[in-house]
Amino acid sequence: MNKHYELSDLLTLMRSLRDREKGCPWDQVQTHESLKPFLVEEAYEVLAAIDSEQSHLLCEELGDLLFQIIFHSQIATENSLFCFDDIVHTITEKMIRRHPHVFADVRYATIEEQKQAWADIKAEEKRAKGLDTNESLLDSISHALPPLRRAQELQHQAATIGFDWQHLSPVVEKLKEELAELEAAIADKNEKNISEELGDVLFSVVNLSRHLKKDADVSLSAANEKFVTRFNKMELRAKHLGVSMQTMDEQALDELWHYAKSDE
Questions:
Q1: Residue 188 lies in a domain
Q2: What is the per-residue pLDDT for 66?
Q3: Contact 238, 256 (CB under 8 A)
């Protein structure tokens, strides 16, 4: 009968992987810094699994993400900073403190009242740590977020005080305006302005997706996968024709692209 592994087994496994004498050479040399790309990648794999609506895949990807957390906690333990139990204690204590309507005798009349109380509790936590609570409305949006996600969060936060268009048409017009400014910068061959205006266009596209109630990350991910699928079909078609895509001119490649699209 196969053993049913538990959290304690995973913690033990991680210690074994990091063991200086018998561990894995790759795992031994990892640091908080070197693991950053993997943490981001695994988080996005979880999002992809959710989109797939396959529970077994979501279970697996959540495990991969948990492994990254275990990895970081082991490194911290080795450096006498904190351990996995400290992580569990900290987040549990925080969630109890931030949900007095569940774990204490507090009642909120509306969801908005609850959200305000949440913000007040977070501010009190900062005061208790000696941190500045007179921050900008946007300071709570992490700089560590991927740019696309951060743009969405910044816009959403600004909208909470009414700094937002109430209708879709001006959002579309703003995007057209930014595209025109980008075209002008390209015509002027001003590299600095091109980069700046391109950023404005991307920011406006994110704003449009938000007003359409679409997640920009999800939409872009779907577009990425659609491109991969079509490009794979192009490769297969070229192979069937006995030609190399590297030697094909622009018109021939365009014909392959339209073939891949029509095959859908």
A1: no
A2: 98
A3: yes
Question: How far is the C-alpha of 78 from the C-alpha of 112, rounded, in Å?
Answer: 43
Q: Give the pLDDT of residue 261.
A: 92
CA dihedral 109, 110, 112, 118 (to 10 degrees): 60
Q: What's the distance, CA 77 to chain centroid?
A: 27
- Taking 90 as the threshold, does the pLDDT of residue 62 lie above it? yes
Here the CATH number for the domain that contains residue 35 is 1.10.287.1080
Residue-wise pLDDT tens digits, 126-147: 888 877 656 777 887 888 788 9
210 contacts 152 by C-beta, under 8 angstroms: yes
| Mean pLDDT calculated for residue range 99-124 | 89
Three-state secondary structure string covering the chain: CCCCCCHHHHHHHHHHHHCCCCCCHHHHCCCCCCCHHHHHHHHHHHHHHHHHCCHHHHHHHHHHHHHHHHHHHHHHHHCCCCCHHHHHHHHHHHHHHHCHHHHCCCCCCCHHHHHHHHHHHHHHHHHHCCCCCCCCHHHHCCCCCCHHHHHHHHHHHHHCCCCCCCCHHHHHHHHHHHHHHHHHHHHHCCHHHHHHHHHHHHHHHHHHHHHCCCCHHHHHHHHHHHHHHHHHHHHHHHHHHCCCHHHCCHHHHHHHHHHHHHCC
- Picking from 50, 66, 98, the residue at the C-terminal end of a domain is 98
Q: How many CB atoms lie within 10 A of CB 202?
A: 16
pLDDT digits (tens, 9 = 90+) for 23-54: 999 999 999 999 998 998 999 899 889 988 99
Q: For 193-218, what is each residue's pLDDT tens digit?
A: 999 999 999 999 999 999 999 999 88
| Tally of domains in the chain | 2
